[in-house]
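A reminder before we start the practical. When you read a complex entry, don't treat the lines as separate problems. The point of joint prediction is that each chain is placed relative to the others, so the output describes one connected object in space. Small molecules and nucleic acid strands, if listed, are placed in the same frame. In the example below there are two entries. Take a minute to note the order of the lines before looking further.
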Amino acid sequence: MDILQEFWTSTGFPSLINTDSIFQSPIIMIIIAFALLYLAIKKEFEPLLLVPIAFGMLLVNLPLGGLMAEPVKEWVFNEELGEMVYTTTQNGGLLYYLYQGTKLGIYPPIIFLGVGAMTDFGPLIANPKSVLLGAAAQFGIFFTFIGAILMGFTGPEAASIGIIGGADGPTALFLTSQLASDLLGPVAVAAYSYMALVPIIQPPIMKLLTTEKQRKVKMKQLRPVSKREKIIFPIVVAVFCILLLPSAAPLIGLLMFGNLVKECGVVERLSNTIQNALTNAVTIFLGITVGATASAESFLSPETLKIIVLGLVAFAIGTATGVIFGNIMYKASGGKINPLIGAAGVSAVPMAARVVQKVGQQENPSNFLLMHAMGPNVAGVIGSAVAAGILLQFFQ
Amino acid sequence: MLGDKITIGQALMVTGLSMVIVFFILLAINFILHGFKVFLYKDKKGKINKAKTETLNEATATKEYIPVKQNNDDEEIVAVITAALAASLSRPASDIRIRKITRINQSSSIWSRVGRLEQMN
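Here is the predicted structure of the whole assembly.
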């Protein structure tokens, strides 16, 4: 009987129930993980990241697994040296070590490398003005930053929450890992949930801020972009941005390197590896370890709820400022620019551009805005990386 | 630069300054890209449009099969289309049976098609 009881206490079951309060219970986290898995698998909400995140969340909340346990270090007397040495007496958990890549800000820039290798900056080069829309849509980040400060978050935390409005997963994770790693779980869940919800969040805001006539505007076809321009672009942008904002170097540097590898055309093998194997492998590690930061103690708090709400505000304001700036450009260009493309300035590539295409086509089925929206869309990626660099400069 | 606890005044300062910097950097990229158009794009035109001829070659390559089609060499066309389909679907050619080939007239210009193809790849 004793053996049975001992076995029972060594399992995870008793620990599932034995918590101080119901709000600290891993059971709630496990249910949230199941819900996220359902959304990712059944509804296909950003499944590439949500599946690993949700599973990481599940693993870390199953009691006694110790996957995120930190290594135990102690002062031990070393007989050979005849003195006390500070040494690891017990290794950490598997996910703890994988998590170091997230915590030290290694994985997100590698994902950016992949994003660079998969992004075509052609539409941006062909229509440079769309860069400004990418800038305008970043305002959501800073408005939310103020909101978060007002709600009692510290400066670095507020910056990490605001960056959700950049609608760029890797950027948000990078900044949060550097400034407020305790918030990684909630920020990741908020950022990726809203990115998946772009087709639901954006259209009402876009319609509210534009007239039917504006939405029907057909834009002039983009000029062709030469290979030479596409090769020079990442080099020039990397040099310029990093000289101006050194703290953005990890993100902008790898984004542009990835793009150069894609565009230069002489390292096809590297390009393939970056686009597929490397990005996929790092996505797995990033996702599962970010999910693993969401333990019951850190996730189940009023702060998480605030972050989720603020993230939505950030997203909505980013979309709105993009469209408002699109409106300004519509007027300035004498009605040649469709203000809808401003909404694509929040980076969420290529989802936001697709939403623009869809909303534009609802008004005018013969209108193809996709390529025009890709310009602000990829500019948004640069914009949010720049914004992250600035916030890093302020708070690190 | 700033500590953990910041005042609203500091937050507003961060916001204002950050927005200005983001705009400034992206505005500068905008000008750099305008520079691209002036220097690289025109330069290209000067050299009898090197890139254009490149893409044109590509375009004519896709166009070339049309005269072949008119040579009544139907079996060959079927074989080519089957092979292309098999390659793009990554299925054995024996799985694919071409029943009917209808020629679709091009409604958009070659330029826009090439542009679109480039974006897709």
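Discuss with your neighbour: Chain A touches chain B through 52 residues (CB under 8 Å). What might explain this?
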